[in-house]
Structure prediction request, 410 residues.
Amino acid sequence: MWTQALDKLLTHLFREGELTLTYPDGTTRRYGPGGGMSAAVTLNDPALVRRILISPEMAVGEGYMDGTLVIEGDDLYGFLTLAITNISKYGRPWFMRPLDALHYVGRYLQQFNPMGRSKSNVAHHYDLSGELYDLFLDEDRQYSCAYFARPGMTLEEAQSAKKHHIAHKLRIEPGMRVLDIGCGWGGMGLTLAKDYGADVVGVTLSEEQHKMANARAQKAGLADRAKFLLEDYRRITGQFDRIVSVGMFEHVGVPHYNTYFSKVHDLLSPDGVALIHHIGRASPPSSTSPFIAKYIFPGGYVPALSEVMHAVEPHNLYALDIEVWRLHYAETLRIWHDRFMANADKATALYDDRFVRMWRFYLVASELTFRLDYQVVFQLQLSAQQDAVPLTRDYLYPDPEHADYAQAAE
Prediction:
């Protein structure tokens, strides 16, 4: 019964390229018209057939991690390119829709992130060994989308371009008070303090990030202008000339969007400017992949722009500018993957082979989702004052010296 149901699912799904699947009983079947993309997969666990039908993303990810789903040549890129292309274009058959509906209904519970739960969710990912992140991030530990403003940029150049692009949008002047919500390891805040003369307060829920950010500020002689707190943004009080948040909004959760933007409004000075940089979907609202929710980002969600703006609008904040970055994160993730795999032996020594396969699956699936499945990055520039910034983007790069950052490449 389960084999017949999976056969029906795969027959519907693969309408481009070809998947060769060997079932646990040794039977081999081919799906798709052939030509172009192809992949060959073997299922070594009979339970995988049922599990793939119940929760495809979870079962495939766990099967790859455990070695019970074996891809010929370990061509994870080829297999996921074939699968994501077909899913994106043709969707799943009607009999899978109840499962999708169940995931959508349950997303509010999965994304319910009160303060205590938010901290444990953050610790799950960001309090992993610091040595792990050294294996694939740039020296500044920018764990968010880089900005490839021109062809041929290195990861380090593109991450620097990202920070300065955001700083220009914030129009920071020396002495301005800046709040960095989700400050990571301090790179953005330290750049704003060092290069733009801002007084920065950063907040994170990660103990590892908190310690490293303050240590970096001390070492750079910026401890008087860049302070990082182990605190939930919901507990912050006072007012700030600027608010910046890079790669944190994905962890807020839809049930808390109104709280988030209410807090941004209350913390921002009347003529202040906020810049919210986050992953988004160029498609209707949906739910988080069960694999990502369990193993990578518990409590996380990538929202549609409609969901975000629905929460912005009640709080008297103008959307001064909304910029869409398309393939920048795909390029970032490809570099991260290549660096990580070049250091796979070190990652195995830190954790184990199963962890390495999990992390690789996360990086490759994320990259291909940006390339093939309606995922982008949004930058929202917000203010309570309509004329808080000039009326065109010309102010971002008034001189040719910074033109590289303005020439956004797809």
Notes: Confidence is low (pLDDT under 50) at residues 405-410.
